[in-house]
From TrEMBL:
Lineage: Eukaryota, Metazoa, Chordata, Craniata, Vertebrata
Domain of life: Eukaryota
Protein's organism: Cirrhinus molitorella (mud carp)
Span of domain Ras-GAP: 181-375
Entry keyword annotation includes Zinc: yes
Domain C2: start-end pairs: 1-113
PH domain sequence ranges: 430-531
Region (Disordered) residue spans: 649-669
InterPro entries: C2_dom, C2_domain_sf, PH-like_dom_sf, PH_domain, Ras_GTPase, RASA2_PH, RasGAP_CS, RasGAP_dom
Entry protein name: RAS p21 protein activator 2
Keywords on record: GTPase activation, Metal-binding, Repeat, Zinc, Zinc-finger
Amino acid sequence: IIACQGLPLISGQNCDPYATVTLVGPARSDQKKTKVKKKTSDPQFDETFHFEVTRSSSYKGRSHFHVEEEDIEKLEIKVELWNNGNLAQDVFLGETRVSVKILRNDIVHRAWYLLQPKGNGTKSKPDDLGSLRLKVTYTEDNVLPSACYTALRNLMLKSPDVKPISASAAHVLGDICRESLGYEALLPVVRLLLHHNRLLPFLTSVAALELENTQEANTIFRGNSLATRCIDDMMKIVGKSYLTVTLKPVLNEIFESNKTCEIDPVKLKEGDNVEVNKENLQGYVQKVFTSITQSSSSCPPLMCDVFRSLRQLASKRFPADPHVQYSAVSSFIFLRFFAVAVLSPHTFQLRSHLPDPEISRTLTLISKTIQSLGSWGSLSKNKLSSFKETYMYDFFKLFQEDECIEKVKKFLDEISSNVSKESSGVEDSFVLKEGEVHKRAQGRKRIGKKNFKKRWLRLTNQELSYHKQKGKEALCVIPVKHILGVEKLEESAFNRKNMFQVIHSEKPLYVQAGNCVETNSWIEVLSQVSRCNTGRLSTFHPSAYVGGLWLCCKEPSENTPGCKPCTATVLANIQLDIDCDRETERIFSFFSSNRSRLQKMEDACAGMSVYLGQQEECSAFTIQDPKETFRTIKELGEVLDDLQAHHDSKGALTDEPGTIENPIVGKTA
């Protein structure tokens, strides 16, 4: 979004404009927003937004990826201009829509557009609403055969082991792209490391590097840095279902009941009762707060592992501050995860559409309060001083401070401590999941259909049990703390689909769910609730022990250790959705478009080695060990040149439209 000219005056004054940018298509409506420009009818925005489009052609020949192709012909970019109302409602100024089909690969489209009334009407005169200048680029990555990416992929996967971490290929990429892309280039790195179970050590190392440069405990992880961006990306990827379970029900209630919650005296409408509104808002905040603080058993294991690591690093860095171990975790889980999701539920697929202005205002007030409640237990006692507005100060006093602090601390402990959340007798038992399944008898009877019986499976935070029917007495109870692993079972084991196994101290429990979604859901919730158990297995048998041997590895002893590594966490399904070749191609693309910056970084390393000190041109980069960083950059250069050669030869063969490798996509009805 470059600039606008001649935007209309609001009440005779220059407006405070901002733009929203939405990529609109049959199955999507992603919205992003520019900063607000103050008191101008000719704002200069100069902001860039990225949207990712799924093309099934990039998955050609990979049948295990179920990718819904997005038709480029049907996508359009919608830009709306708004006046920021500040204390009043935002005012719509005009919009323009640009079809993506005007673009060709790597062709830059730059043009002025007249702003139109809502829905691209034609009633307005040309000069009524002003005009907008856009630059749109559509770039397509051509994904090569997997073998071409081996060298670059291995170099990226080696990153967590490089000492210092700033000399790793992944950190170098973040460094050279920071000026042009912010930390956008790190998303494919996070996905790639996640797929290969290498993300935790990388996040730990970059967080440790950031803490080295943090001077005060109260500013811990507050800025936008390489470490915070990577952890943000990780939470968005692995925490999607966690948000759905925790926030979706209460957000649906807020949207559907739509009670007025405005408590700012300046913004009250005629007939509003501030006390009633305050009560409405307090009720919503209480529900959101309770949903969050009781959700620890649903928090994905990888997030818990990262939080545990952050907590230890923070305590080590600031040993004199007892609160810092909590603020290291709350600055992510409350400020960067839950508060953001409450504020913009549509960006996390918790709601399909943008909220209307009134609900949006309610969500803003809830989000503000949740942020403060979340940081209450982790920082100083008196959080009331953090509110600039008197009405927020008065509202916040309605919450029982000590009670909230205890709840927040308990929640932060549960998602970040080494200790399993074992039942203490005081903790209430609550149901996490239940439903009808088929269970294989655990005896030694001949295997056959009669050995599978319909049962009601029920999981609480303390035990897994199965019953003849819902509400009947349990036929078998397995304490959660005895679960050693939860894994899928090969279809060939019993010639049945959608099977999984619960491995515990006795014989494995073999269960068949109704469909693959249910199977994944059971595996996910069982893995989450047992993730901190001591003695969890590192290997398992993906098939059954039948006729005196394991079907998978043919070993005769029933006590033989597993022949396959256990799924590290419940990330299995998310990891399957990551196409490593595609992510490595994105990484290559980011490196290629920033080769000049990579060269500058190489020169800076050489300069530091020769002059033994920090030169002026080095300040743009993080260079702790010039020799190690120089070695990484040299290796990167060779790998990138080699990959470029593959692209050039591939392009020479297949760029011609109409060949078998590059068929022309015909029009569909």
